[in-house]
Structures are given as structure tokens and as C-alpha cells.
Amino acid sequence: PSLSIETVASGGGSIxxxxxxxxxxxxxxxxSEPGPACYGAKGPLSITDVxxxxxxxxxxxxxxxxxxxxxxxxxKALAGDALSEHKDPESILEGFLRxxxxxxxxxxxxxxxxKGYDTSEYxxxxxxxxxxxxxxxxxxxxxxxxxxxxxEAGLLSAVGMGNARIERFYIKQVLxxxxxxxxxxxxxxxxxxxxxxxxxxxxxxxxENIYIREVLIYARFMxxxxxxxxxxxxxxxxxxxFRNKYEKIYGHWxxxxxxxxxxxxxxxxxxxxxxxxxxxxxxxxxxxxxxxxKSWLDNAWVDVPVYIWEDLETGAxxxxxxxxxxxxxxxxxxxxxxxxxxxxxxxxxxxxxxxxEVSPGNLDxxxxxxxxxxxxxxxxxxxxxxxxxxxxxxSSFSVNIKERLDYSCALLDRDGELIVNAPHxxxxxxxxxxxxxxxxxxxVMRPGQVFVTNHPGYGGSHLPDxxxxxxxxxxxxxxxxxxxxxxxxxxxxxxxxGSMPPDATNLPEEGKVIAPFCLIDQGQADWDRITRILKxxxxxxxxxxxxxxDLTGSLASIQAGSEGxxxxxxxxxxxxxxxxxxxxxxxxxxxxxxxxxxxxxxxLKAMERLDDGHKIMVKVSISDQQMIFDFAGSSGTHPxxxxxxxxxxxxxVLYVLRLLVDEDIPLNEGLMRSVDIRLPKGFLNxxxxxx
Length: 691
Prior knowledge:
This protein is α+β, with helices and mostly antiparallel strands and 691 residues long. The chain contains 16 helices and 26 strands.
């Protein structure tokens, strides 16, 4: 067995940095040696230093000696001239915390969406020595109202390993359809249970102390690679259980497709001891704080009580703001949060101002200047694109999308210029802006529209890559921007399966060509039109059901992206969203220009040939304010299927520039603001027609 573990570089050792334009955190870490600056080993400013300087730690109750003076010196050395632009340094320090909190929340949100879960329906469990310092902030970002913190949270795995029950499992591979195996399923499971018990008896566990904890069925559609785990209850319930799980994760259902039982897993476990988890006592016990100290909370210094966890009794209730310190962790309890100690010495923190929506928008951030806000909005934009990608992967059918991850999602501004993308397929991303701008030129944008195309003359790549584009309008019907995705369909017609025959001499031989049209308009989907296109002669698609399922998944991703951008507009204001979209492009451009100073007044040339002799020629001219890519001299239109498109060329140039910059910035078309691509007609820029 294996666990899917995602880590985000945002721990206490995450290094804080400033490049002169924006502040950022991580992914580099100071580690345990030299560690944060406050450790006294000449380490860099890290998140632990930030928490210390903001009074979110008690320096007298820390595992090792820490020095606040050293942390302050490291902060002044880093912030430098930026400090003069702020009335107080606390806004910069708080900005570092906000950046790191949003990064962690983004990771949690992405994983949850990929699994089909809404974070607001769950509680947050905080582990690690520093987890409690950030838990309330992260819960508010994720719209979570309850947090559980174990008393030994800082010890994490060691305690868990020491208390874990012994289990053994047996897996029986089946690889038969449900109908083929249904009559024999109970007997197969019984024999599998016996083998699981025998495995556990080898660990010297008496048979009377063994029970079958769970039987799991791994099912999938015939032809699908990924199987879904469902809990076995009865053979007759398997189809419905599979459908419920499939629709929850993928967002659609495919009729008339056989269900395959991939394997059966039986888990035998040592019987647990009788454990009763009592609820928190209702009679309030009000503890006495050990002392008071100043902490920076909610944009102000306040005197907060400091409680020692080991001194708290069961039923203790503490109202925030407060600090709770133990040998293994430290908790920051914010306003509107209450903490109770339950019968297992766990801290249960609950947000009780129910009438107030818990969201990032409720946190006053007006005191953050552009150096911090640009990083915050970059993370928010990237989070939106990553959530689109997670949903697209979850809700699609094709192996190309689910397993090969051959898809891309992006956020674009109201002019159709790429702002951010999730870290997906590079060749897609430079082309998405060109595709969106071609649709802007062809159609009048209205709320509720979603356009579809794969046409290479409209910013497409090869035909299996189908693009969906949606304009997004705010509550006042003002165009805010665009969301787009591009996904590779496993089958799209053509003279041979796979839609990419090497001997093709025209587009219909490669697959179905979809000139851009409005797939969704005023909430109504034109499925008939897309079905006619995909099933039309010559060379219709061979898998219309899979095509429609993948389009449904792409559409779900687009709708999620649209709602995400609308929420950003409601939370921060449309003008603010426009400002930071433009600011991010300008930041990318300035970063490129700074890099170009090392190459100015240089002229570079290169020539490459395809196997059949067709030439790609490029001349790159560089000044301190501009780069020119001139492809004059490249071969004419190719008679076969080796022709590229301006979108592909633009993607390649954009990706090279992103590598040249070598900074932690999102791929966006601000990098192209000082770039001129000169592309004559030929096999890099052939003529295309709608039909």
C-alpha cells in the first residue's frame, strides 16, 4: 500500500525573500542548521523568525534558546529600503505569514477538489510544532469552522507509530466484469478473508483477537486504467456504489459501459481496546493565564493571555485572542475562536460567529502594499488555475487526461492575455492567449457563454487538443477576464485511430476540425452541434461517449474557474483584480528586462532541419529593452502533417523566456511585452481555413 502525500514548502524554516519588487516565501528552507536567524547560527530570515517578531511565540517556552534581536536584524537586512515605504514593519511581517498561509491552504484545497471534497464540510487537524500558529488563519481561508490539535502534535509520526494496531491485508486480483464474477463474489471474499487472517496470525496475534476490519472492491469501467475504491456491503449493491463514487469524483456518468472488478482487498486487524471518546464538558472551567504578552493579531498589537497547555484541565474553555503553549507545540487562538480541552487532552478550536462568512475577504488586507499584494494575488490566481486542473482531471474519462496529465488550465485578463497557468503542458499555454484573442475578434462576449474549438487557425495545436474558453463577468456585468482549458482527447476521428496518422496530408485525415462556436449560451448547451461535428463523415470519431464525457469534465472545470474568478471580484473588487492582473504582467516584463541586460546588443542565429530537410531558421536580436525573434528563411508549407502554427511558435518562445528569467514567477504574457516575433508564411505559419 502507499499514501499519496503532498508537501508544500511552507514550514517554520521557509526562507523569506525580497527581490526589490515583491516579497515571497520558500520554497528554500533554512532547515535545522543553520536554521532561522533567531537560532543564532547566522541563518536567514524564516517563518519562525516572523512568528517570533509578531509575538506569536513565547521565547521563554521554546524547545531551544531563540534570540529576537537576531531575528530583527535579519529582517531589517532583508527588507532594506522597503521599510521606508511602510508606516510599520508589522505589515511586511504579517504579509509573510499571509503568503505562507495561502500557499498551504491552496495545497489543501487542490487535494480536496481532486478527491471531490468541499473543505468547508470538514474539520482541520493541525500537526507539527508550528501548525497551531497558522491553523486559525488557514481555517478561515478554507471556510473551516473547527480545528482539532492533539496535545502531542509536535511529535507527529512517533506517537502514531507507537499506538498503531497491527493490520495485514490480502489482495486478490480479479480482472473480470461484474456480471462475470457476481455469482462467485461471496466465496472469493470468504477465501480472501481466511488468507488475510492467516497473515495476521503470523504476527503472533491470537485468532480470537482478529477481526475483518474492511473489505474493499476496486472497480472501473472496461478500458479505463484507474479503479475506484468502494466499500463492500453486498454483491448486488456494487453497481450503485460504484456509480455513486464515480459521479462524486468525476462529475458525470457513462451509460452502457461494463464495470470491471479489478481486485478485492481484505483487511484483517487486531481488535482495538474499548475506547470511549467523551465530548467536551459543558460546564465551563476558566483557567488563569500564566502571563500576558503583546502579539500582533488582526492588524494590531494586543495584550494576549498566555496559557500553559499542561496546566489546563479537562473542560477548560478559552476565548481568543490567546496563546496556548506546550512542550511540543504553540497555538495562536484568534478573535471569534474558542478553545476547549476534551477528555483526551486534545484542543478543539471552534469559530462561533456563524453569521459572519468565514473567508479571506473578511480579513483586512488594505495595509499590505504592492510588494506583498502582488505575491498574494499571484498565489490566488495560480490557485484558481490549479483548482480548475484538479477538477478537470477528476471529472474526465480519457487516460490522456487522467493519467498522462495532457491538459492545461489558465486564467487570462479581459484582453485575452495569459495571466497565470497551472504547471501543465508548456506547449499549450502560450497558445491559449492567441486562441482566446481570436475568439474575442470573432464573437461578441456575453455572460454565460462557453466557446469550443480545436482549430489550428484559431490558436489550436493538434486536433485532439480541444479548447474551452469562457468570458467571466462580475455582478455588474463587467468583463473581468477569461478562463480556458485545453485537453487531449484520446480519439477524435481521422483516417486512423488516435487521430494523428503520420501520412496525413490534410486536416480531416487527422481528425475532426472544430471551428470556434458557442457551446454554451445563456445556460443552454448545444450538444447536438458538437455531436454532429464529431460524428460527421469522413472519418468520424470512434468514441463519441468518451468525447462527450471529457467535454463534460472540461466544462465542469470551466464553470469552477468562472465561479472562482467571480468570487475574487466579489471579495476584492473587480478594479483590484484588473490592477493586479496588469501588475503581474508588468512584473514579468520587468524581470525579463533585468535579465536581458546581460545579453544586450547581441545577435544570435540558429538553424535546425527536420528529418526530411525542412529548415527552421531564427535570428534573435537583443537590446536592453527588446528581443526580436525573426524566423525568416524557414521552409515553406510542408506537404504532410509537419506544419506548426503561430500559437505553437509563440508557446515555444514564451517557454524559453520563462527558463531564461529563471525566477519564481508564473508563466504569463507579460514576458512577451518586450518581444517581437516575426513569422513569415511557411510551415511555421501556414494558411488555414474554417472548413
